[in-house]
Amino acid sequence: MPGRVGVRPAGLRAGWLAGGVVAVLMALIAGLAFGSVALPPGGVAVELLNLVPGVDLHSGLTAREVAILTELRLPRVVLGLLVGGLLALAGAAYQGVFRNPLADPHLLGVAAGAGLGVTAVISLRAGTAGDATANLPVGVPVAAFAGALLAVALTWLLGAAGGRDRSPATLILAGVAVSSFLAAGQTYLMQQHVDTLREVYSWLLGRLATAGWHDVLIVLPYAVITAVIVLAQRRELDVLTVGDEEATGLGLHPQRSRYLLIVAASLGTAAAVSVSGLIGFVGIIVPHTMRLLAGPSYRSILPLSVLFGGAFLALADLLARTAGGQAEIPIGVVTAFFGAPFFIVVLRRSRGAS
Amino acid sequence: MTAVRVRDLRVRLDGTVIVDGVDLDVARGEWVTVIGPNGAGKSTALRAIGGLLPFTGTVELDGTPVDRLHRRERARTIATVSQSPTVPPGMLVFDYALLGRTPYIAPLGRESAADLAAVEEVLGSLDVARFAGRRLETLSGGERQRVFLARALAQGAGILLLDEPTSALDIGHQQEVLELIDRLRGERSLTVLMTMHDLTTAGEYADRMVLLAEGAVAAAGTAREVLTEDNLAKHYRVRVRVIEGDHGPLVVPVRS
């Protein structure tokens, strides 16, 4: 509601929200229609509507095509949307909490911590090893969460050792050190449990390829908890941009918001990593693009990161399974291919600003 | 009625005593300026009074101990503008001023029409409404200072704590901002407690002054009582000549 001064307060604009929803729907239909067997997008859209209880329309797809759609592709695309949304949301939350444009689940070491947790569960689980397509054990996200929290705590402590005047780079350097340390632990575990190597490796490259509804159900509760907590703090994140002391003066409890957000973002990262393996750069590309396009308020960055992050990862996954011919490209390779150059641009911008 | 009552205020930062037993009173509607050499504890004392630092002793705002006020309630009672507030990249002036309404917005709520109207009114009264749609970082020092004030005024607090609000400004803009604060104090019956380095200017505007040295009150009273050649020589280690001016003593440093 523009007033006398003609300025609308920062927040999520309806146009951007609609754009995000459209992007998700387009990624969903594209992800379902394209693949080794091409399906007509119109028929796919109708079949999606048929999933709504009480709707029964004629899509023109055969029973086999419907099975491909609902049992193979739909869980994979839905998982891609969830994982992408979670990683982007976690990245945006870390950037706000640490007031650091370079913060990202991977650069902070959080993903490596979650990876160590997952590797530990898979490696140390005796007897049932070897089957890469087996359902993910329910304990995996819990172990991933423990590893993620350990990692973010280590990174924070190590980054704080630089004293008060630390630059954005200090925290990231700490994250790199923590990542290397945890990755070393992971490699050691893999070496010691060669029998589970294949399973760990297939998970590392991204499990989206073998995703089923089971994986979606495992990640969903964590995704909901993370999204609710982080989105509830969206205005607090805007206030935190003026600094902890000013935020305290405005009646907030910055440290409490910070802990809550770090735990929630780490939970989301852990859930994403435990079903999808290590997929980098989503947490930095998507929030920054939203910041550039829709403005610096977390009230728009956070919800838009969920939508566009999901759409981005679903499309990256589509590219991963179609661009390489018969063999799938690991999805982490696709996101790194786009993400690494983008990261350099962000680094240059943030150096210019400081 | 006392707006700010401070007794035996002590603050330690990283194990060092910065403020060491300060007593201070500011009556409602009064303007008190704290002066003192660098490192005397002026800013630290101000931050403690605003509830931003842990302290021992008593700080009462409008008769209530500050540590007994809920955070949001405190933010509606006292507003602080720090020495060099962070300018969030990309944030519009309007959104920045709107942050001042935070203590009125429920944890999961959004700004009401009343909040928006309050901010528009404040921006208008500080003559910065025309910048509302600009990014804060594009404003000049004097314009920014007025926007920082706007954010503090938007809090609707009766007590204003200003930590060297003019330190980044040239003398013309210094005077402009201080005149503005004086006008707002009259219009909104504000109580003003601030720190300042420029002694002559500080003395011209303040009702009373407090000289801090090494964390304790060295002198307090009117500008004439505090800005004496003896006081300044002793605590600033400087030779000055104090001359009677139209609005108070003029402090002129003299080479020794």
Automatic annotation (TrEMBL), chain B:
Domain ABC transporter: 4-239
Pfam families: ABC_tran
Keywords: ATP-binding, Nucleotide-binding, Translocase, Transport
One function term, GO molecular function aspect: ATP binding
InterPro entries, alphabetized: AAA+_ATPase, ABC_transporter-like_ATP-bd, ABC_transporter-like_CS, P-loop_NTPase
Record PROSITE patterns: ABC_TRANSPORTER_1, ABC_TRANSPORTER_2
Regions crossing the membrane: none
Descriptive protein name: ABC transporter ATP-binding protein
